[in-house]
């Protein structure tokens, strides 16, 4: 990364806890002094029938997908100045729901509400808050069974599943100056599913 002119630091922290979020914020404060962009991208999935959904599994998904965004954003808030941007990573199922994922859908819907409300609260400080909601996205480490991939692909208007760069492009747009008058919105990156 340094060959590209980037400066970065890796910090091991459990962002589902206040102590972990504050540890990460302190590392940013010490190394960089402030933040221009925060991307809340911590998340986990879960595939459990509702009648077998345990309280522990419910909290595991909600803590990773929603509570972490609250804790990290609050921990770094004093590092964000006018013109900065917060981008969350939601999911298109927040609007549609998904069987075997009530807790996942609920966590991503909560993140959408968090985004809209926080945008209204931080707008006066010149801080923008938006959400990217990907659909099914292919990654190198997570191959879908071929029949499921074909079924999901057929549901999209573009005839393919998402790629990581599709999501990254939306995040870069919302983080940058081209979106200087965009806040409180969700961009669905789902191929028109």
From TrEMBL:
PROSITE patterns: ADH_SHORT. It holds the Pfam family adh_short_C2. InterPro entries: NAD(P)-bd_dom_sf, Sc_DH/Rdtase_CS, SDR_fam. Coiled coil: none annotated. The lineage of its organism: Bacteria, Bacillati, Actinomycetota, Actinomycetes, Kitasatosporales. This is SDR family oxidoreductase. Belongs to the short-chain dehydrogenases/reductases (SDR) family.
């Amino acid at each position: 990364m340094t060959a590209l002119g980037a400066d970065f630091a890796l910090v091991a922290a459990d962002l589902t806890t206040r102590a972990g979020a504050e540890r990460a914020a302190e590392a940013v404060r010490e190394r960089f002094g402030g933040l221009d962009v925060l991307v809340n991208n911590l998340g986990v999935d879960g595939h459990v029938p509702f009648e077998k959904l345990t309280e522990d599994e419910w909290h595991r998904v909600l803590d990773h997908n929603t509570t972490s965004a609250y804790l990290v954003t609050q921990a770094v808030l004093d590092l964000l100045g006018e013109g900065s941007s917060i981008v969350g990573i939601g999911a298109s199922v927040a609007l549609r729901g998904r069987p075997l994922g009530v807790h996942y859908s609920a966590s991503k819907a909560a993140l959408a509400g968090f985004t809209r409300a926080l945008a209204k609260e931080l707008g006066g400080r010149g801080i923008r808050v938006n959400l990217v909601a990907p659909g099914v996205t292919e990654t190198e480490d997570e191959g879908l069974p071929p029949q499921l991939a074909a079924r999901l692909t057929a549901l999209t208007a573009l005839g393919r599943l998402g790629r990581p760069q599709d999501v990254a492009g939306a995040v870069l747009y919302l983080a940058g100056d081209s979106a200087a008058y965009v806040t409180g919105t969700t961009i669905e990156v789902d191929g028109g599913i």
